[in-house]
Write a structure and sequence with these properties.
The structure is a homodimer. The first copy, chain A, has 7 helices and 11 strands. By secondary structure, the first copy, chain A, is an alpha+beta fold. The first copy, chain A, has 2 domains: 63 residues, Orthogonal Bundle (Arc Repressor Mutant, subunit A); 139 residues, Chorismate lyase, CATH 3.40.1410. A 6-stranded antiparallel sheet of chain A has the order 5-6-7-10-9-8. In chain A, helix 1 crosses helix 3 and helix 2 packs across helix 3. Chains A and B meet through strand 4, strand 8, strand 9 and strand 11 of A and helix 1, strand 4, strand 8, strand 9 and strand 11 of B. Strand 4 of chain A pairs antiparallel with strand 4 of chain B. The structure holds a DNA duplex.
DNA sequence: GGACTACATATGTATAGACATAACGGCATA
DNA sequence: TATGCCGTTATGTCTATACATATGTAGTCC
């Protein structure tokens, strides 16, 4: 005899059902926590937890004093797992291979410095490498690392371990920004990914910071067969 | 004299800081809730809330009896807001325009039926339209709607209101799947988006279900200048 | 040694009670 | 009419306590 207990999950799901089945239409002011607590025979804190989860998911809108209403414009959010490339490839049952293409300290181009809010002409560590799945090019990584923040990176050996994997273990970040876009493959990218120049590529760009200091900018290029999928 | 109170936010941020600054290295078993509660002068429930948030973000791993440890592989997740196109455009301060291109019931191609797990040859409502920002093509939407689930759609007038906006108000979904990819513009897409055939485009695909029934499949094509950005 | 069991323990969840905080709406004032 | 103050009220958060649940560990038995 279990499951009769009104847990916050039960409440959350039941409220979610009422919204999905349009018992409560968008914009409706739903009963207050106290009332719901009574209805479900639970404490207000329990109802609160259920409501907060739904609000976080974007299907409820809550305001003090004003009460809780069904979101008019369910701005729902999708969550993408940002896996490490090795795990992503091995997780699909493929063999992962890695190839370091180049690694050198160099004066970073204007664009890069600007993206990282660094002085133009800053010297950064430039790493280029290729990730393969079952020997087929999967991602070309073009990365700039700020040695001011991660001095160890200058001594690191990226011939076996990719810079991302290395950074995860040596330089945690406090904030990150991800950008995704479509682009046309440059001649270099095309050669490395075994596609034709100008073919569409799926590009991810990742910038990470430690506090206000930029750690790294990664430009990640996939052939157009790449899919980024998420369930909601 | 406020702020001295140890709220779950304070605790969350302080723990987060310790992890970011490598006071607690990945893999470390951190003190138990009871201990932390004592340290912060808070109740265990408060510490619990802070820890649960960090666990949800993927930077802590918790297991009953085993305790809480700093995630070895911070599989962090990025959250993308899935806005409605009008809001997305107006939110950037641009003017939104909408143009319906076609709207008819038709036998859906194999691929579409397969993606929606429907019998091959099912008759679906096919809507094509264009969204513009400041009169510049922003997104071409090619959508199939399942009239079995949303019969009202057959009578709906999509000449003024886009099908997405209409669906939000008439057919809430229980689950959704989002896919993003890069592709080459077809001749039709190129014409509508005012780019050249074969130019890279950023494509989003969205399928929604109500329970087990597929509601709609939307194919959303952006010119390659489109950026999808998220902060973490 | 290996399998099984009992126990200890950290987290998971629920509860009642309390106070904090924001903001709706009405009332008073300029 | 417009403005500003303020009480009421729904949500936000914290506390203390209790019990549930999973699971590592130690101890037992063969």
């Amino acid at each position: 005899m279990t499951g009769e207990r009104a847990s916050f999950r039960t409440i959350r799901d039941e409220l979610s059902r009422r919204i999905a089945e349009r018992v409560w239409l968008p914009g409706t002011l739903i009963p207050g926590e106290e009332t719901l607590a009574e209805e479900f025979g639970a404490a207000r804190a329990t109802v609160n937890r259920a409501l907060q989860e739904l609000a976080r998911a974007g299907i409820l809108e809550r305001r003090r004093r004003a009460g809780t209403r069904v979101a008019l414009h369910p701005v729902r959010e999708a969550r993408f797992i940002i896996p490490r490339i090795r795990q992503e490839i091995e997780g699909r049952g493929s063999d992962y291979q890695y190839r370091l293409l180049s690694c050198e300290e160099a004066k970073a181009p204007e664009v890069i410095c600007a993206r990282l809010s660094l002085q133009p002409g800053s010297r950064l560590l430039h790493v280029r490498c290729l990730h393969l799945a079952d020997r087929v090019p999967y991602q070309f990584e073009d990365r700039w690392i700020n040695p001011k923040v991660v001095p160890d990176a200058l001594q690191a050996d990226f011939s076996q371990v990719g810079p991302n994997e290395w950074l995860v273990g040596h330089a945690p970040f406090s904030t990150a920004e991800f950008t995704f876009m479509a682009a046309a493959a440059s001649a270099e990218e095309a050669g490395l990914l075994q596609i034709r120049e100008g073919d569409p590529v799926f590009v991810g760009e990742r910038i990470t910071w430690m506090r206000a200091d930029p750690i790294t900018l990664a430009h990640l290029v996939h052939p157009s067969s790449h899919r980024m999928v998420t369930q909601l």
